[in-house]
Amino acid sequence: MTRRVGFIEKISGPVVVAKGLRDVKLGEVVEIGKEGLIGEVVRISGDLFTVQVYESTSGIKPGDLVRATGKILVAELGPGLLGSIFDGIQRPLEEILKLVGHFIKRGVKVNALPRDKKWYFKPTVKPGITVREGDVIGIVQETSIIEHKIMVPPNIEGELVKIEEGEARVDEPIAIVRTKSGEVEIKMIQEWPVRTPRPYKEREPYEVPLFTGQRVIDTFFPIAKGGAACIPGGFGTGKCIPPNTPVLIADGTLKTIDEIFREVKGGEPDLSLPEEIYKVTKPLTVLGFNGNEFELVKVTHVYRGYTNKIIRIKTNSGRVIEVTPLHKLLVYNSYGTIAEVEAQHLRPGMFIIIPRRIRIPTKLQEFPLKRLSEDHDIVSKDVSVNEKVKKLIYTCDKEIIEALLSKVKLDIDIERLANTEDSLPLKLIILLNELSGRSIGIPKVLGIKGSKLSIKVPYIIDENLGELLGLLISSGTLSEESIKFFNEDDRQLDRFNELLEVTFGIRGVKRESESTKYVEVNSPLLVKVLRALGVETENPRNVDIPTVIMKSPASVIVAFIRGLYLGNGKFTKNTIEYVSVSKKLLTSLTYLLSRLGILYSIDFNEERGKVSISKTSELRKFYTEIFSKVLDVSSVNSIKERVNNLERSLVKKDSEIPVGALEQVEKTTSKRASENYTNENWSDKYSSAMTVLIVNKVNRKIKAHELSEYAERFLELFKEVALDRIEKVEEVNKLTPVYDISVEKTHNFIGGFIPVIYHNTVTLHKIAMYSDSEIVVYVGCGERGNEMSELLKEFPKLVDRRTKKPIIEKSILIANTSNMPISAREASIYMGVTMAEYYRDMGYHVTLIADSTSRWAEALREISGRLEEMPVERGYPAYLPDRLAEFYERAGRVKCLGRPEREGSVTIIGAVSPPGGDFNEPVTIHTLRFVGTMWALDTDLAYRRHFPAINWLRSFSQYINVIENWWKNHVAEDFPEYRRRALRLLVVSNEIEAIASIVGESALPDDQRLILLVSEVLKEGFLRQTALEGEDTFCIPQKQYLMLKMMLDFFDKAYTLVKNRVPVDEISKIPETFEMKRVKEDERGLEAVRELYERVMDKLNKLAEKYGISLGVEYGERGL
Amino acid sequence: MEKEVYEILLPYQGKLYRRIKELRGNLAIVEGITDVSYEEVVRIVGLDGKVRLGRVLEVSSNSALIQILGDEEGLQVDCLLQFTGTTFKIPISDDVLGRIFNGRFEPIDGLPPISSSEKREIDGSPINPCAREYPNDFIQTGISAIDGMLSLVRGQKLPIFSISGLPHNILAAQIARQATVRGEEEEFAVVFAGIGLRSDEAEYFIEEFKKSGALERSVVIINLAEDPAVERIMTPRIALTIAEYLAFDLEMHVLVILSDMSNYCEALREISTARGEIPGRMGYPGYMYSELASIYERAGIIKGKRGSITLMPILTMPGGDLRHPIPDLTGYITEGQIILSQELHARGIYPPINILPSLSRLMKSGVGPGKTREDHKYISDQLYDAYSRGVKARDLARIVGEIGLSPRMKKYLQFADKFEREFLNQGVYENRSIKETLDLAWKVVSVLPKEELTRIPTRIIDKYYVT
Asked: Which of B299, B305, B385 sits opposite A944 (nearest CB)?
């Protein structure tokens, strides 16, 4: 093979750019510089390729050589893995220690598996048979407890011609297979690319629990073999918004967030609970911003909590945003990137991202005939439709028709219906249409019963109707009998009549009173039609834009806004304003303007509010979008003139550009800009906020073509969003319920009284433990050095419960402490999971503990930053969720490839340590999507030295249903019942404690005090399990069950006693009550619990006798 | 003039270049250069004749980004650059003991610079996890709150999270003065790094060291608030390089105090901003965690060596906010934290350590029979538990009044008061032995009836309970 060598162009931390290797592959491992530092190719672009280096690059120079190895990053698999300690790229740390001393020097190369060690290989098959990938051909006793199965490597199939028993090194052939392409030597060592999952035959369902010996986990929040769990540390509080905040739904309408909550919950929020969370079952779609554009995203959960502090943010455009302090908003920072900032950290002068243009897929809306048909007075006067109906009635069975009529509750004589009337009830037609698949057709002429009046109706809400509604809503009134439209401009009144004519085929009468001119239409029918369309003008404060308009496409919206502004718009010097006393109307209007991509500012006060458009660019857009087609109306002419005037004196700078940015661009880049954009007005082409980014990039000497790429990208982006400067941030202290929704993918949504992008919430989670799995792979990524050394010290001492051998004999450790190279941290979890899969393929149950995946994700982020990739949430790269999913998906219980048939599993337990204990950060949020169990660590419990500090109210396990079956079959039939009752008791006692903390414990009734007493026994005696040695380190399932049974049976009997007026103090005085908290540590184990159980029951029976109460034989009365 | 400048550089080796392309704060972009390595040290001499040091932050085939250390003011683009061909190293010998340096490792005590052929890179290398010895020797600081409940062990890194205005420096000086390993007469060598300190704070430490005679076994590195921010990046690294030399070459037990790490982080942010990097949380760079780890993780013990490095970083939490990135990221690397409380300070309690959120993760390995006393772990757990209940009772009493408390809660309230007044509170120069501390703990906890002591085995209660 020819030597493939390139050389370094640029170095920045662990990222090195090199060139000169045209045939380099993505993921290929390269060696860098004299020392041969190991790195992996992560990007290839033209002649250049980028390498992520696994070691410190200090002292490396441009021009140093880069040697390609032709291999991608692989794990060496074979006997010798167990008991080893590796770094993130599978270099054995013990060997490095021997080679270079106490500190890890760079460029050390050591084989993962010792090449000098001989293993005794014992074949399990005979020559002559056909073997294929995954087949076990022999075994090696790797450690005293683990038999290493030697499997045929992937992609090899053929006749086994030779197999030899005896001692061999891992790289010596032990067998020969004759394949189609010749004879292949089989060695004990094989390689596998770490980023590719190893194959298996098929996945199997979760059925078997993975026992950890920790009661709180095994009994309450179990994990299945092959499952995935995560453990978060610390606590966050909710990030929410106030109840009446509107949220933009995907159909274009607005719904307040509490309304959404109620719909999902199917009832009122229960404000006595501190918080509630519900899963969304019916599809609910909103709009989210993915960093580039808006997309439709599904809502997964709704949440309600409380806050005692709200942050109120006022912006330059007049937006008032109210959120909890931890709620995040998207902020455009001076680096030209979008960051999420918690509301409490927002300061005046920062720019928040607001939607500029909201694109919603919509279609023309149908005319709401069905709603109209609710009114039995409305009839069809469409002759052709009516004829069809009559024909149908003639041909139909009379009884059927009668049944139909009674169904729609129409009291009509059929004879008359078919013969005399030339108008038929609309409801009937709608019904028949529904039944017959619309074969009858929709009536185009409607009338009102008992009246000669009739009007035409359209099929759909078109532009004319849109404009008409706009006019009406802005300056029309509806009474029972008539419609009035007021305007000073005659042409406007004519226009109203014209639209009426086109749409409904009627005209109104122009009238003039003392002060005003108006058009009046006397038509109760039209009033009904308009009401059905959603026009409501009775209370001016409640006027809103009809939902049919909100759901309509842009063309109709344009017409509607035209009507609205022509009706009541204020056209003043350089601004167009719309003033209204209805906040609802203005809120809806801002959304409509955003749908058209027009920016505006808002000013709300108690009485009224206004939406104004004043920027030149926006005025121009407003004019061209909305008025350019309109006929001659004086107010429009004045805008036209003004826009034309403004065009001439056009100010180049848009005010949404951060202050001073443009000047900075011009100053620092004028030279470069003139080189590259000689023919254009550069700043005009790239006006808008991305200029800052360009300054930044130019400063970092990015090449011209790249610059224009960036510019184009941002130009694209700022078509979708705009910036809004924060003017004022204030804290409001009040206790109020707050709501939130969780959204897939984008984790934000559009909402607010004026469209804003809100970031959303999910929930929380941490832990690691030894279990009954056969192999343990521990990946310490970004761990503390001393903790790692503790693990290294403790591990060899720990004794496996079943085999009584050191746990290290079944473990592989990967240690990448926080000060070791960042890239190796990124690789470490793949290395770990590949080794785990290898043992799974032998038929073992493997547990992989990754501590911590947050540190791993941070490594991903750091490298991504060095690669200058566009960050999304909190600076994490957009592919973070994919990487997390890929990792957790490698867990599973499977049927292994090859013969003999065997089953293995990889269970992944990932620790998440979110910064600031904030569970709404991307790593936690995404992890929760891919795991089935969460153990929520509770700092409060930890302070009280209650370990494991797993909060029983907040943890969850989705494996419980399948695992309960296991308990039922293997331990006790009634286990699920005890488990549920114990959890319930803990929840109830939590509520009682809350009351007790206010009124004092002694003021509680005796039955509640008993609940507190028993919950204390459960917490101290069952949930708490601190022991590092002795009986309580591992609690067997039978003992867990019996302890739980003892405590709950105690509760049942005691409850009966208390109900029969035995003072609770009498019960708490029994020494056995106290003993129940300690029995877990008794060396006699299960026997001690059994013995105590008898005594407890006996004591309670005696107490019952003393008070003359009968306790029954089996159970007492059940309190819960 | 130019000639003079050349003469300044003459005695040193390395390629010379003239002219910086762009100067931005303390960053300089140089173009048209070759053969420069990442993190190489550069000498920069301006026309004013001053020599400044710089370090290469980013390098590509013909340009380099240099971070200027020292005073960049007065520097013009027309200057000379000498690329030294090596990364930043400091000369090191046992002469460093008793000396005071600035953040560029230049002596500021009037004595000559250290000269030695032994030069060390200040970045150090990670200790092989397999070479680490797990820390388990109890350090007696003579402070009850720490010894009793947040025991420090040799090789640990335990930060003090404080708030501006609290006596963290007084506490750190007291620990430096009093720290001993039980059973060994040997005292700790102290390496003190003042990062962005006010001169009076720096003065306090130096005075304290002089007064107690500790200066001769100390090395003081002071980067004052007025010194350039870039040097703050190097200050802790120089301190730890010296500490590594003392601990692993001279086999001494070293206590390193870094005060105040918040200033270090601020400097990191400042430089990152100047470089135009993508900022992470609150503008701090995304790699701040790795940066902090590369400093903190240099603490520890190496198998087969007698020496050790115990690290005590001090940081002031901006706005007292525990979730601020600086304390937050620190907490993920260090083995616990000591948190000072404004409330206790206001009540006149010294040291104002808020026990509840404080934690020493390595305590379990440093206490117990043979190390301190058999009852240590239990009594400490019990104190935590009881104090947290006591504090809860106090909160409750604020609402319902003390009369509304149950007799049990009243006991806990009584306990919390006694605990703060007698156990926590002690004098700045009061040095309590571990026995005194534990006996005091029993005296305090015995306010509660025996049945309440659920964290302690009966055997131990019977032995130590004070009636």
From this structure: B385
Cβ atoms A577, A619 nearer than 8 A: no
Counting every residue written for chain B, the total comes to 467
Contacts of A782 (CB under 8 A, 6+ apart): A816, A817, A818, A825, A852, A854, A855, A856, A858, A859, B289, B293
Q: Nearest chain B residue to A697 by CA: give it.
A: B276
In whole angstroms, give the CA distance from residue A491 to residue A497: 10
Minimal-distance CA residue of chain B relative to A997: B396
Summary count for chain B: helices (H), strands (E): 14, 22
**CA-to-CA distance for A764 and A761, rounded, in angstroms?**
10
Residue A764, token pair as written in the block: 């929380």
CB-based contact A56 B297, cutoff 8 Å: no
> What angle in degrees, to the nearest 10, is found between the helix axes of A426-436 and A383-395?
60
Cβ distance A915 to B39 less than 8 Å, yes or no, reads no
Chain centre to alpha carbon of residue B175: 12
With CA atoms as reference, report the closest residue to A767 among A650, A677, A847. A847
Closest CB to A63 among B61, B302, B332: B61
* Mean pLDDT over each residue of chain B, to the nearest integer: 86
Nearest to A815 among B129, B133, B280 (CB): B129
By the 8 A CB rule, do A477 and A540 touch?
no
B148 three-class SS: helix
Quick one: pLDDT at residue B419?
A: 95
Q: Average pLDDT in the A132-153 region?
A: 91
ipTM of this predicted complex? Answer: 0.79
Sheet containing strand A157-163, edge to edge, reads: A130-132, A157-163, A173-179, A182-187
Contact A875 B286 (CB under 8 A): yes
Angle between helix A922-930 and A853-866 (nearest 10): 120
Q: Give the nearest chain A residue to B153 (CA atoms).
A: A786
> What count of CB pairs under 8 Å joins A to B?
215
Residue A922: asked if its preceding bond is cis (omega within 30°), the reply is no
Q: Distance of alpha carbon A613 from its chain centroid, rounded?
A: 36
Judge: A817–B277 Cβ closer than 8 Å, yes or no: no
Q: Chain A contacts of B398, Cβ < 8 Å?
A: none
* Best residue in A789, A797, A937, A1012 for a mutation probing chain B (most B CBs within 10 Å): A789
The pLDDT, as a whole number, for residue A687 is 40
Report residue A728 as tokens: 């004022």
pLDDT, average across residues B306-329: 88
Cis peptide before B260 (omega within 30 of 0): yes
Residue B365 has pLDDT above 70, yes or no: yes
CB contact (8 A) between residue A10 and residue B39 = no
Most confident of A45-49, A321-325, B297-301: B297-301
Find chain A residues with C-beta within 8 A of B84's C-beta.
none
Identify the band that residue A654 occupies on the pLDDT scale cut at 50, 70 and 90.
Answer: very low
User: What's the whole-number average pLDDT of chain A?
Assistant: 78
Q: At CB < 8 A and 24+ separation, what contacts does A1112-1116 make?
A: A1112/A1056, A1115/A1049, A1115/A1052, A1115/A1053, A1116/A1049, A1116/A1052, A1116/A1053, A1116/A1054, A1116/A1055, A1116/A1056, A1116/A1057
Q: What is the DSSP letter of A1079?
A: G
Residue A1095 host element (H or E): helix A1086-1107
| Token couple for A9 | 């162009």
Percent of chain A with pLDDT over 70: 79
Mutate to test the interface with A, among B27, B31, B35, B38 (most CBs of A within 10 A): B38
Which range, of A545-554, A995-1004, A1043-1052, B127-136, averages the lowest pLDDT? A995-1004
Distance from CA of B181 to the nearest CA of A (A): 19
B33, B122, B128: best to mutate for the A interface, most A CBs within 10 A: B128
Of B63, B129, B290, the CB nearest to A788: B129
